[in-house]
Design a protein that fits this description.
alpha+beta; Ubiquitin Conjugating Enzyme; 2 helices
């Protein structure tokens, strides 16, 4: 099944918003897609200053949250502290990852785009 039009629009917006990164897309066969954006900077508090970030945009988009997001599995804080709440190790699309659990409890499909959600997740990650 081809990408749903709203999913294709979300991918185009991601490519515009993250023009200096590579946005890799693999269709999920249901009208949605698995997306990887690379590189992104997780922030100076991490040993690794670059990571990819991945997520799935389901065929229900924009009425379904883009959740969760995943980053490289070896992400580590420079101060040696644990990553903290809402960050757990998982696998995503064959990659060992750190899952970033940032659900949108009050999703507004007119305004909460995949690109805006990604920006919010990155801001959250950088504030940890």
């Amino acid at each position: 099944m081809a990408l749903q039009p709203a999913v294709a629009e979300a991918i185009a917006e991601l490519r515009t918003q993250f023009a200096s990164a590579t946005v890799e897309v693999r269709e999920d066969g249901e009208g949605g897609a698995f997306v990887f954006v690379e590189p992104v900077d997780p922030g100076p508090q991490y040993v690794q200053r670059q990571t990819w970030i991945g997520f799935r945009i389901t065929f229900q988009y924009p009425y379904a949250d883009v959740y969760p997001h995943f980053v490289r599995g070896d992400l580590a804080r420079a101060d040696g502290a644990s990553l903290g709440e809402a960050m757990t190790t998982r696998n995503f699309e064959g990659h060992p990852t750190v899952q970033l659990s940032r659900r949108s409890n009050h999703l507004d499909p007119q305004f909460d785009t995949a690109a805006i959600k990604l920006l919010k997740v990155l801001d959250w990650l950088r504030s940890r």
